[in-house]
Amino acid sequence: MVDVNKLREKAKEVVSRDDVRLLIGYRPGTYGFRARPAFVQGPDEADELIFTPACVNNLATYITLEEKLPVPRGQEPDLRKVAVMVKGCDSRALVQQMEEKAYDRDRILVLGIPCTGVVDMAKVEAKFPGVLQRGEIALEGDRFVLSFNGSKEEVPREELVADKCLRCRYPTPLVYDELLDEAVERFADDDYSDIAELEKRAAAEKWAYWEEKFSRCIRCYSCRNVCPMCYCEDCVLDRLQPQWMRRSVDISENTAYHVSRAYHLAGRCIQCGECQRVCPVDIPLMELNRKFYKDVEELYDYEPGTSVENPPLLSTFKVDDREDFIL
Amino acid sequence: MALKKLSKEKMGEVLGELSKFRLVAPAKSDEVVVFKQIGDPQEAFLDYGNSTVPPKKFAFPQTETLFRFMVGSPELKEKNVEEEGTTVIFGLRPCDARAMAIVDKLFSWDFDDPYYLKRRELTTLVGMACVEPPSVNCFCTSLQGSPFGTEGLDMLLTDMGDYYLVQSLTEKGEKLAETLSSQLEEAPAGDEKKAEEMARESEGRIRRSISTAGIPEKLPGLWENELWKRVSAACLGCGICTFLCPTCHCFDIQDEVDEGGEGRRCRMWDSCMFEEYTLHASGHNPRPTRRERTRNRINHKYSYYPNRFGVIACVGCGRCINLCPVNIDILDILDQVVDAQ
User: Fold this and answer.
1) Which of A35, A278, A281 lies nearest to residue B325, judging by beta carbons?
2) What's the whole-model pTM score?
3) Contacts by B71-75, CB closer than 8 A, 24 or more apart
4) What residue of B is the nearest CA neighbor of A59?
5) Closest chain A residue to B239, measured at CA
6) B289-336 pLDDT, tens digit each
7) Which end of chain B is more exposed for a tag (fewer CB within 10 A), N or C?
8) Contacts of A31 in chain B (CB under 8 A)
């Protein structure tokens, strides 16, 4: 795992550069084992940066989420770079954004962090309920070491690691200006065993399953807002005239929302799992996204977010593309 | 008011008896606990910390039809809340009940909201004391609340081990106790004292706190303070903090018209954290970034509301902290407000 001192030194160097205005990284959270996004603008602030298995957020989201107010007359827009720390999955979001020409590669400076897996905070909190003091998590060998209240606990990696990490094909970032540690090998391949059972079910059973999940949705839109691939400036959900999708919360509108979002992510979702992580009512959104991901891989031999040179799947046509499902 | 005892074995009978009303209780949906209308008493899940979504939607539905109409016709078919019948919300936590008492002030302020107030009139709140504070981020005692608080409740149940201690707090509560008289027994002597002791112990286990003294007065002077940029930098602009807040009460009103011309006017929860919440028809947005929107959220709860109604619109349930995707922590923000120069 990347050395924190090296990380901070690098961050200081980066934010001191004339062509960099901001570095997005992680800092300790306010309680328990949490970490949170950090926005570093000067070398002094770099000392708060960390990178631990608690750094779950996909910071690529902030590249497109940043709000820009109109530049006052007579002033020039600030075109300096934004530096961002990325894990393997986060880097795939950058790749996909760049494939889609969301912004110029020159606009960002990427600090790659080879990732040995992040924790699933729900698993951590189930194992250590009620930890209030800021705690730390590190990976040592095949065990997570959790330090809190002056004591240390060791837990086998498999018990706390996020499910997505166990099938991660790209733990080392796929795009970076500088890699802050040695590249790491993939841990396992993705066999899609987690969605196999759902795929086999009859349509009526699938509907009953999703009806129960979607009926819980409160339409807080955290899944959309956290998603690095949901960066449209004008979202169909926010349109009132014409109103494409109603704000009413019922099974029909909720389903329309989630199915539309899954379709918009087909061939684009980069498997960071943030939508499912943030959902306050535990809707297993990645099951939908992973079904599409699997189909795209099988039908078109395409994995989103793996090569900047790749054109986006849905803007390409190959003569040997499958079309047996088209009437 | 007389204290009663409800044996845990009789809980099924009690919920069965209450099923003659619209009975709302915590229930499990996968691992998520939500309040829902239950038909079968078996569905109730009372061994819970707190619900993810507060039960506010049973007073203030997330989507509510106000009236129906036909395009081109002057006739309106208005909503009759009374048709929903008498409701019992069973097993809610004291913070959520107190939140309803706080929100009542808004809905009966310059205009009496007929839908909300009628529904509140028809609803009896049966609380469940927090023998154990439900989450690490509970801070109700900083906001004049308590794990055993009774404000807003009609009846309070305290888990005494083998049985619940039942305390009727209002006329509605007394009436409910009468309905349940065949299931209730006389409470053992000394239970009142024992419950008071349990309350003190539970309060002692709350580990997060903030001194709110001076915050409502200080906030207006921090309008342009750089703290707002700092605390909102990570904000995603989603609505979790407001939708899961038991005191947040903002709504939008929209008309939904089907192709045949049948329509309804309805109101639905809205969130001040959403970009289009303050978007004017002109295209101007007075809260153009998440900095202004975060500032508004804190000011609304900790300045505007207490200035207007004499009470802070936060009950310290901790949901906005527990579930924020990026660890924006209202106690951290308030600490920075206290420290700001």
Assistant:
1) A278
2) 0.95
3) B71/B257, B71/B261, B71/B262, B71/B263, B72/B261
4) B234
5) A220
6) 999 999 999 999 999 999 999 999 999 999 999 999 999 999 999 999
7) C
8) 136-137, 208, 321, 329
